[in-house]
Amino acid sequence: QVQLVESGGGLVQPGGSLRLSCSASGNAFNFNTPAWYRQAPGKQRELVASIVRGNKPNYADSVKGRFTISSDFNRFTVNLQMNNLRPEDTAVYYCNADIGTLQGDQIHVLNFWGQGTQVTVAS
After folding, report:
1. Per-residue pLDDT of the chain (123 residues; tens, 9 = 90+)
2. 75 in Cβ contact with 82 (< 8 Å)
3. In Å, how far are 29, 31, 108 from 82, measured between CA atoms?
4. Which candidate, 88, 107, 87, places its Cα nearest to that of 99?
């Protein structure tokens, strides 16, 4: 069974940095369109950054120039380097990916979410 496991959240002062990591465990066969989302209290979940193999990453306007997404598609991992953090970046961050599993001679692709990791930016 496939799971996305996240790490790296925590408390940081404004202007500080954090690095979030996420990896797929279990019987993953391929790893597609990994992304990071976040959800602040009382707000809807929003896309922070996504990446497609061979293409430039996509970022929300609010994080452009501060956050960097990277992925090792062969190792089924995705990271989010967050610099110059602001209080408004405070949220639970979730990784997301379309993951294929090999079932017999067919690949079944499902969308998976990580469990979420809290990022708090405060002085």
Report:
1. 899 999 999 999 999 999 999 999 888 999 999 999 999 999 999 999 999 999 999 999 999 999 999 999 999 999 999 999 999 999 999 999 999 998 889 999 999 999 999 999 999
2. no
3. 29, 22, 33
4. 107
At position 60, the amino acid (one-letter code) is A
Beta strands in the chain (DSSP E): 3-7, 10-12, 18-25, 28-39, 46-50, 58-59, 67-72, 77-82, 91-103, 106-113, 117-121
The structure tokens listed for 36 are 């990071």
Amino acid present at 83: N
